[in-house]
Amino acid sequence: MVRTFAVIGDPIDHSLSPAMHNAAFLEARMDCTYIAYRVPRGEVPEGLDSLRAAGIEGFNVTIPHKVAVMEHLDSVSEECSLIGAANLVHDRGGRRRGFNTDMEGFLGPLLSRNVPLPGCRVLLLGAGGAARAGASGLAARGASHIHICNRNVEKARSLAEHCSRMGVSSSSGPLPSYVEAGFDLVVNATSVGMNGGPSPADMGRVSPGVVAYDMVYRPVRTSFLEQAEDAGAVIIPGWEMLLHQAALSFSILHDREAPVQTMKRALVGVFE
Predict the structure, then answer these.
(1) Which of 239, 217, 250, 216 is CA-nearest to residue 59?
(2) Per the confidence metrics, is the pTM higher than 0.70?
(3) Of these residues, 16, 21, 39, 66, which one is catalytic?
(4) How far apart are the C-alpha atoms of 197 and 218, rounded to whole Å?
(5) Spatial separation of the C-alpha atoms in residues 234 and 27, rounded to whole Å
(6) CA-CA distance, 222 to 48, in Å (whole number)?
């Protein structure tokens, strides 16, 4: 019998998760399939009931349901509690358990490059769910200061307070027109730049050697990354975070190591 897994969201047709997970199933010779399943905004309870009725025992959760789904879970991981959102649900034995792989997925590309996070001075652009996952991970890894900028300054202030409660020096403000020197890591956690749009802030003045990390994964090379690279920065594209969190999701759902290189080829193949 084929076991089915899914990713839910609204919209969901753009999701790259099915390509990665189905490639992993093929590589591991697992009798499983992974689908994209649209759950309209405001219909999370009905959507979860439909998934359970269909026998889907595990699913990823994307925008706009990561926070709303928390109300319908029987237990959550420490990461879920810290971030206040779930992006993975295990539904077995009539119980739903929530996980969040965004934080570790965000950290993965930084750790694989040996970026020194303890004592790191961070500029974080954005204050939504992705920004909260990134900020939580950086705080947990010993960043010395996190400055959060957002169009909605109140949301930036709220996230800065979250970082302070985690014991990290933090500050907040509006999105800058350009990024000044003085940071070791600059992260774009906004959706600005998606599908070829402009950078959320001019990166042309960053110091050489700064790490510029864009959570946007389409296009692969955003204006934010191009400007940063031209200024001598080390760049990290958003698809790497997507891959790391997907591999972690696979490991949690199936209790086995994910075939990361296979998932990477499937992901990059979609972009090409």
Answers:
(1) 250
(2) yes
(3) 66
(4) 10
(5) 32
(6) 35
> What do you get for the CA distance between the two ends of the chain, in Å?
33
The CATH number assigned to the domain with range 103-236 reads 3.40.50.720
pLDDT average per 10 residues of sequence, the chain (272 residues): 96 95 98 98 97 97 95 97 96 96 97 97 96 97 98 97 97 96 96 88 96 94 97 97 97 97 95 74
Strand locations in the chain (E): 3-9, 32-38, 58-61, 75-76, 88-92, 95-99, 121-125, 145-149, 169-173, 185-188, 211-214, 234-236
Asked if 184 and 210 count as a contact pair (C-beta separation under 8 A), the reply is: yes
8 Å CB contact between 147 and 172: yes
| Cα 241 from Cα 110, distance rounded (Å) | 9
Specify the fold of 3-100+240-271: Rossmann fold (3.40.50)
**Every domain range in the chain assigned CATH 3.40.50.10860:** 3-100+240-271
**Two structure tokens written together for 16:** 């790259």
Helix axes 17-28, 238-254, angle to 10 degrees: 50
Pinpoint the residues of the chain covered by CATH 3.40.50.720.
103-236
Does residue 66 have an active-site annotation?
A: yes
